[in-house]
Each structure stands twice: as C-alpha cells, then as structure tokens.
Amino acid sequence: MNRRFVVIDLETTGNSPQNGDRIIQIGMVVIENEQIVERFSSFIDPERTIPAFIQQLTGIDEKMIQGAPRFQELAPKVTKLLEKSYFVAHNVSFDLSFLQEELQMAGFPIFDGPKIDTVELSRILIPTIESYKLSELAQILKLPHENPHQADSDAEVTAKLFLALLERLKSLPIVTLQQLQRLSTYLKSDLYHLLDEVIGEKFLSLNDERQFHFYQGIALKKETSALPKETSSYSGASSFQQFSERFQSIPIAGYEHRLGQWEMMNDVNEAFETSQHALIEAGTGIGKSLAYLIPSLFFAYEHKKPVVISTHTLQLQEQLIERDIPVLRNIVSFPFKVAVLKGKRNYLSLRKFIRFLHEQDKNYDTVLTKCQLLVWLTETETGDVDELNLPSGGKLIWSTLQIDNDDEPVKDIDFFQRAKKRALDAHLIITNHAFLLQDLTGETPLLPAYEYLLVDEAHHLEDVAANYFGQQVSYVTIRQLLRRIGRSEEDGWLAKLKTVCTKLEMGVERIFIELDQIIAELQFEFDEWFRMIRRYVMQRKNEKNTVRIRYRFQPMTEKGNQWKAINELLWRLIDRTNELITKLNDLQMMLRQKEREIERLSCEFVFDYFTDTVAFAKMTEALQHLLLSDDDLVVRWMEVDVKGAANAITIYSQPIQLEEFFAERLFAKKKSVVLTSATLTTNGTYSYIISRLGLNDFYPKCITIPSPFNYKEQVKLMIPSDLPSISDVSLEEYAHSVAIQLIEIAERTNGKMLVLFTSYELLKLTASMMKEMNIDERFVLIAQGVSSGSAAKLTKSFRQFDQAILFGTSNFWEGVDLPGDELSCIVIVRLPFAPPDDPVIEAKCEQIRAQGGNPFYDLSLPQAIIRFKQGFGRLIRSSHDKGVVFVFDRRLTTASYGKYFLSSLPPLQVHEGPLHSLLTKLEQWLS
Q: What Gene3D superfamilies does UniProt report for this protein, alphabetically (predicted)?
C-alpha cells in the first residue's frame, strides 16, 4: 500500500476552537509503505492560560510552554508534512477542526485532503471491546503508551494503532471488504479508495478463506466444537474430595489459596452431594466465583449431571468466562465444556440481518452498525449481542435484528440453536436470572434438564422476577412501532409492502388507503390518550422539585370523568388496533399465495415486517390488562417525566408476592439450589431473604463466610455531627451543606471520592453547588445524569483523573470495582431507604400490614441494610486497600434502628463528631 498517512494528535486548552481554545502541543507521525518514516512534535504557546483540569489531564503546565513557538511559526512545517497525505487522528473531527482554525488564523490554506478516524475504524474492525479510548485500545493491542494525553506519545500510539487496524482490514474476507466498501461513502472516514486497494491486493494473492462460511454475500466464522485440550499439569483428581486432598497446599498458576474460599467450596459441594438448598453470604475478597465453580465442575463431571450457574449482570458472566474459567482449566485434570445460554433476543437473526444490510439508509448509526456486524460475523461463533459495543442508534436497531419466536432459522447458522446445542454437552451452563425465569415458566424448557443450580448475585433474584412477570408500556415504544409501520407514502415498511404489491399487480390499493387511515387515527389518538394520562397524573400528584412523578393506581377504584374518558378512548384504540391487525393479516395471507413470485423478486423479507404487528397487538393487550383488569397482588403505576414531552408517560405493573412461585417452580423442583451473594443477611440473619424467596418450608443451610480483610485496620467509618437534618431545612439548603462538607473532605483526601445518593434531585443540586465552589477546577466533577454516558463510561472517566469526585445513584451502589488508589473515600449521603412514594414498596407494605406484620422492620429496613452494605463494599476490594466511609445521615447513630446498619457491617472503627475533628483524625490515620 503506497499511500501516505500523517497521524496527528493535539493537546488543547479546551474543546472549542470557536470559543478561543488553542493548541498547546502537536504530535505528527508520517507513515509511508506501512512504515513510520518521520516524527515531529512541539509544545505551542497558546497565548492564554491553561485551565487547571487540562493541566491535571495532560501533565502540561505553564512552565512547559514557556519559550515555545506560537502556531504561526510552525504552520509552514505542518502544512508541508500534510501535503498529498491522508489526515489520520483518533477522533478526527476534534483534531482537524482545531488545526483548520489555527491554519486559518495563521493565514495558511486549510487541509482539504482525505481523512481517517481511528475511533471509527476501531469501532468497525474491533466491534467487541468495551471502550475505544486510545489508552484502552493501546492496552488491548499491547501497544506501548508512555505518556497518555501528551500529543507526541498519543500520535505515536495512534500511528501504531492505525497500522494494526490496516492489518485487521487486510485479514477480512473479500465479500466483507466489498460490503464495507459499498457502505463506506456514508462514514466519516474516507475509506473507499483504501478498501479498493486492499480488495485488489487480495484478488492478486492466494487467499485462504476456508475458515469462513459464506451465505448470501456475507462471510461468517465456521463453528468449532472440539473439546479444549487438557492444560493442567496435575493428574488423577476426578472428584472434589481428591482435589481438596491433593491440591490445597500446591501452588497453581492463576490461583490463590484462601481459607474462606476453601470453606465455601466445601459448603457448595456438600449442598450438591446431600441435595440441600443453601444460602451462602460470602464476604468481599474470598474469591467466591472460583469457590463455587470448582465444586460445581467436579460435581458435574463426577455425576454426569450439568450444573447451571445464574448471574444477574453481564459483567459477572464475562468475568466467569474470561478470568475464572481459564484458571479452572489450570486446576482440573480433565477437559470440560462450559456453555453460555441466554434469551433468544440476545442472538442475531441472520435472515433479518441480510434484509437490513440491503435496505437503503444513510443514517450514520445505521451504516456504522451494518459495518460492525459484517466484521463481527467473521469472528463470532455465538451471535450474542452482549459481545458487541454498538452505537446508541445500533442498540435501538438491534430489536429489529434479534431472533424472536416467529423467526425462521437459517439452516446450520441459527445462533440460538447453536447455543442450545452447546449447552446440551456442557458440564457448566452459565445463564442469567431473566433466562432462568423464562425457563422455569415456559411451556417447553429452554435449558437442558438440570437439578443443580447455583445463583450468584442472589439478592437480585426477586427484583428480576418482579420485572419479568410485570408489564411496561410507554408512549415512546408505541410511537416507534407506529413509525416503523408508517403510512404507505412514508418511510416505514408499509410503503415497502405497497411497492412489492404494486410490482406483483395485486390490486390492493384500497387496503392501503384503509390502513393509512387507521394508522393516522392510531398515531393521533395514542398521542391524545397519553396526554390525558399525563393530565390525570399531574392533577392528582403535582409535586415540586422532582423530575419524575409516580402515581399508583387501581383500575377499579379510580373515579371521575377524566378516568372514564381515558377508558373510553382506550376501548376505541383497542378496536382500531384489532382492525389494523385483521387487515394486515389479510394482506399477509394474500402475499403468502404469491411466495414464488416474491422469491423471484428477492423480496422474501416482506414477511418479516408483520412481526411488528404482533408486537403492536401485544402492547395494546398489555394496556388493556394494565387499565381494565384488577388484582390485589399486582401493583400498577404511571410515571411522568415532568420536564419531558406532554405524552412522555410509561405505565407499569409488577406482582408483589412471589414467594409461592419460587417455592413451587424452583425450590420444590430442583434437588439443590445454592444462593450466594456478598449481601444476603440483615442484622446477622437470613430471615428476610428466606421470607421473600419462599424458602421457609425448605429449611435451607445458612452459611456466613466473613471477608478476609482487616476492616479495623483498613477502614474508618465517620459520621459528621454538624450537618442539618434534611427534614429541618429545604432541599437546596441541605444540598448546600452537603456540598460544603464534600469540598472540605476532598481537600483533605485529595479527591478520588465516590458520593452515593438515593435521590437524583439531591445529586443534581449538590453537583451544581460543588461546581460553583470548585473555582480553581482542582477537582474533576463527574455526575450521573449530568455528565453524559453510562455508569461504565463515567467510572472509566473517573479513573483517568488523580483528583476526581464521582456522584452516583442507583447502579453505583454496587458493581463498581475501584481497587487501590482508584478510590480512597466513599460518602453515603442518605441511608438508602426506598422513597416513600415507590409504588411497589407501598403495595408490599400494605400487604405486610394486612397480614399483621411490621412493614418497616419486615421490608423497608432489611432492603435498606442490604443496599447500605453494597455501597460500603465499594471501598475495600483487596487486602492492600485503605480508606474512609463518611455517612452524612445521623440516623445511623441517633435512630433506634441505626444499630442494625452498623451490626451488618464487619467490625470496624466508628467515629462521630464535627467534620473538622473527624478530618484531623483522618489525616493522622492516613499519615
């Protein structure tokens, strides 16, 4: 490849050249004939100050740019290097926009050549990694990266990344390259001629593509099914007893012997061998994944019966497959199989993808998704979407590409059937709680027959079941479905159906006129119906200082003309939906009679469109159930986004009593179910989890294995006594007090603080006030719902900075793993009681009260304690960690129930007093 590429990276004073931000460093690397032939870098005088957070991010301070040239002095050199070259950068629009602005200001012509974005190219060619940040790509591809966020180092690693991506591009089969070339005109990068050259080279070479299966113009990786080779250096142990006798004192690669871990191994093994149910609370740091995987595998191998492992999060599933199973292969002496099995919607429908690939759509996310999937199909054997990192638009598109119950499998390439087949031969089957429930409730089993189950993250099982059995209908979902169907003169699939019918000369114009009318009415009337719901909710629950209102309703007790009007319009919507479905079914039957002609036109995909009508009918049925039926054991509520559109409503339902289901469908049917988590007990007992999961009549073994960490030496718990009670002041005043104390703590601890909230309103107010107090921008503030991005993205951003404060709610209370120096301080602003207006909690409390129980002690308190333990557990992740937990809620020591929170924690030192005295103690301890 003879083309010349100039890889550029810039460090700047900010994000916007239009607002006066300037370049402070430039790095350039020249590539010719796929070799680095020249390098150039320089600091640049920006003729303005460098903000503190930029200095912290880049390590470039004012001293380093003293005496540096201004950009206009370097412009001739930069322009010369860029002649007849591709402009390559990691996020090319950022670097190019800055460079163009500086060139113009210096009186030089702007760059008008081709450009390539290595972020975009990485997304296409490495579609399965979690992050496309340069530092993480460098780590994955094992590229040296000495000084991240300095232009010379970043340009060098971007150049090496680009060369690695070129190699990946050249390894793709020709049909995939041809498809990518067809799509490339709609990408940011100018790839068309580059791809043309790669395709030409491949045609001239002897290209071996036997590892691929080809189907309708796309390449797929062939499935491999061989058992893994025996990798262990040990032999003879084919039972758990032999293993424990021989290997407890022998060092094994990748495996660390821990006392608590061996205890848990024996407990899991005993539960399976004696066919007992068991609850095991395993403290942080004992290595519980291996503690249950090892005995599960030996049991499955020795008894020739599979063991199912169910987790709540994808993160834990990935950890089991990528980190723990390889260690397991070093430990045992026999080859074994592990399979991952999830719901159908996790897997790609090849037939739907081929239709999607050939649909004309210039939308960027759509084109990027097509490119990613084309490359991914050359790598994946599973077809599981969880392997992919799709763009936001791609995640929405996935719902049209996933396998569903009506999907007709492509012979030998049905990814769900592949997964089921692998599971049939597996010793260990890894799945998730939602799929486990689907298997327990389905007419035909989805998992292979099994009697032994290990449930990790078991504290989530009840909530997952409540969501699984519940219903949810939103205006947005209905609107999207109607838009996808569209009218015959719009962009939806009805227009495409009409085109096919016209080609077939079916004479069904009248049907399309009637369908257009029904769809137009449904669009208008659903808009109006959701507006009526919003008005109804707002009049009954007009709350201030909230972004979301939840209104619990009971269909048979709601009264008034408004409710009557809502029901009347709903009946009309149900009737019109039934008309729509009937007419579309008639049309489908007519098309079925012309299947041969449709095949000749290569329009078989038209039948896929009708799955949307099934989905739409189910939505309307769900609304009918939500608003027109009643059940004392089901809670229903409406949620209104106060600042959202006038019809931004979601309607929910959930069962409030699942004990019977778990007792009858799970524990009575299985020989042994082991439930484990770091947080199962409250105040030292298992009574709460036993009651909620219907285990009372099964007398499960209850085992607590404490964390091996020395919390007395590693942690201090501090409770400031000089914060006002939230009930005595306004929310704004309370947020101001919290912000002041957070700044003081951050200044003494140098940041790296996680602040946990139970209320998004309080989080937003506090973050806003801290921003005003953080005048010198010493601390980087990252706030969930304020800073853009997912929890994982915000956590990664937090890791980048030495002095950062992360504000989080909900999912930040658990699953965030920040060992060592990455986190030294946690602040729990409020004890994590569920909000009093939570409809599910409210309904469960009423039921407990009706049964003569105490809702606070039987439900609210245990739930809050488990959440509190999860938040506390974010701090200490290894035996070397050290840190402090501040709790701003004085109820921890003043309320009668506070002792239950404290007694649920490991033994540790608790200090209460004015913040200044606590900080003095903390400084002495840390020093």
A: P-loop containing nucleotide triphosphate hydrolases (3.40.50.300), Ribonuclease H-like superfamily/Ribonuclease H (3.30.420.10)
* Burial class (CB within 10 angstroms; exposed 0-12, middle 13-18, buried 19+) of 450: middle
Taking CA atoms, 544 is separated from 307, 643, 645, 765, in Å, by 51, 12, 18, 14
Copy the structure tokens of residue 466. Answer: 């409540």
pTM of the full structure: 0.87
- At 105, the pLDDT band (50, 70, 90 cuts) reads very high
Buried residues in 25-59 as b, exposed as e (16+ CB within 10 A): bbbbbbbeeeeeeeebbbbbbbeeebebbbbbbbe
Binding residue per annotation — 285?
A: yes
Which tokens sit at 526? Answer: 């659903």
282 is in an annotated binding site: yes
Q: Which two tokens stand for residue 559?
A: 């009264």
Kindly list the structural domains of the chain, giving each domain's residue range(s) and its CATH number in brackets, ordered by start.
4-170 (3.30.420.10), 472-655 (no CATH), 711-926 (3.40.50.300)
Percent of the chain's residues with pLDDT above 70: 96
What letter represents residue 852's amino acid?
Answer: G
pLDDT (tens digit, 9 = 90+) per residue, 852-911?
A: 999 999 999 999 999 999 999 889 888 888 899 999 999 999 999 999 999 999 999 999
Share of the chain above pLDDT 90, in %: 64
d(C-alpha 394, C-alpha 405), whole Å:
22
Residue that is written with structure tokens 């007519």 in the block: 590
- Give the gyration radius of the chain's Cα atoms: 30
Taking 50 as the threshold, does the pLDDT of residue 229 lie above it? Answer: no
230, pLDDT greater than 60:
no
**Region 527-543: what's the mean pLDDT?**
90
∠ CA 83-88-92 to the nearest 5 degrees?
120
- Helix, strand, or coil here: 430? strand
Average pLDDT, the chain: 90
3-state secondary structure 713-762: HHEEEEEECCCCCCCCCCHHHHHHHHHHHHHHHHHHHCCCEEEECCCHHH
* CA 489 to each of CA 284, 520, 885: distance values in angstroms, whole numbers, following the listed order: 60, 12, 61
Strands of the sheet with 825-828, listed across from one edge:
780-783, 804-808, 753-756, 825-828, 883-887, 715-720, 909-913
Pairing mode, strands 672-677 and 278-282 = parallel
Distances (CA, A) of 753 to 759, 810, 821: 18, 17, 10
Which of 265, 315, 282 is closest to 677 using CA atoms?
A: 282
pLDDT reported for residue 739: 96
| pLDDT reported for residue 232 | 45
pLDDT confidence band for 520 (50 / 70 / 90): very high
Q: How far apart are CA 835 and CA 758, in angstroms?
A: 8
| 287 known member of a binding site | yes
Give the pair of three-digit tokens for residue 459: 């504290």
Q: Quote the strand ranges of 541-605, DSSP E.
A: 548-553
Do residues 93 and 117 touch, judged by C-beta distance below 8 A? yes
- Say how far apart CA 122 and CA 117 lie, in whole Å: 9
Strand 338-340 relative to strand 428-432: parallel, antiparallel, unpaired? parallel
Give residue for tokens 């699939």: 493
CA distance 13 to 65: 12
pLDDT of residue 394: 86
Is 382 part of any known ligand binding site? no
The pLDDT assigned to 256 comes to: 66
On whether 289 is known to bind a ligand per the annotation, the reply is: yes
Q: At what angle do helices 364-376 and 118-125 cross, to 10 degrees?
A: 50
**Which of 479-488, 624-633, 640-649 is predicted least confidently?**
640-649
CA nearest 317: which of 429, 430, 447?
430
Residue 233 pLDDT: 44
> Using an 8 Å Cβ cutoff, are 124 and 45 in contact?
no
Answer yes or no: is 283 a known binding residue: yes
Q: Which residues contact 491 (CB under 8 A, 6 or more apart)?
A: none
Alpha carbon distance 240, 303 (integer Å): 11
